[in-house]
Amino acid sequence: MSTPESSSSTTNSSEWHRLKSDNPFAPQQRVEAAPGNSSSVPIDCALDSPIDAEIVDDHSLDKHCVDAVVVDQASFTGQRQLHANLPERRTEFVVPKRFGLLAFLGITTAISILFGGLRLIEAPPSAFIFLGLQAVLVCLAQMFWGHEPRVASTSAGMFLFPIYCVVMLLEGSFFFLEGVWLFVAIPIVSIGSVPAGAGLGYIAGTCAAGVFLLIDMGETKLSELAASRSSTTQVP
After folding, report:
1. Where is the stretch described as Disordered (predicted)?
2. Quick one: which H or E segment has residue 67?
3. Contact at 8 Å (CB) between 151 and 145?
4. pLDDT in tens, 3-31
5. pLDDT value for 195
6. What is this structure's pTM?
7. Residue 41 and residue 34: Cα distance in Å, rounded?
8. Coil/strand/helix, residue 31
9. Whether the Cβ atoms of residue 136 and residue 146 lie closer than 8 Å to each other
10. Of 59 and 154, which is predicted with more confidence?
11. What's the average model confidence in pLDDT over 51-58?
12. How far from 79 is each of 41, 68, 83, 85, 224, CA to CA, in Å?
């Protein structure tokens, strides 16, 4: 003879099985009630049990991935070939912002040679002033605008040479003009001397950079010679 308690347990168990069959995500494990509990109603532990899943390998995108890798490798190889075909950029030697005693001696030697050549050809004093100022101005321009040494040198020449020509025009060393013709000649000489000033500035910048290049080569040779002598003296 069944008791009300057993009938209630059977009803709850059948209800649990029905809910489990309706829910596809129901867990496969069932935990019974605690021993102290008279009821044998199973406990749903959906949060404790993993969900059964079927793993299917899909290789439909593998071809696209391989194509993408091949394209990336081809583009990378093409970029490397492009950079390899580019002409190598040469290092531009400019007047440094800081230099030592050897560089100072080299500068004074170069200016002495320049003034000695002007003295040899009996150049006027204005030529000494112009070429001395040109050398100093080009060196300063390359020191402060070393990232564009050619532009700095040509700009210095374009600035200084027209001023020199106008001063010489007013002094009368080159032209013998008076009155209105003098004022007409000033703008013509100023504008016409700009290209010549750019060329002179470029030449002066090249000579200044060449002087510092020779100084740098001399310092390198002296340091190597000193290092070799120190290494030979340390050997027993």
Report:
1. 1-41
2. helix 62-85
3. yes
4. 544 444 555 555 545 544 455 555 544 44
5. 92
6. 0.53
7. 10
8. strand
9. no
10. 154
11. 60
12. 71, 16, 6, 10, 39
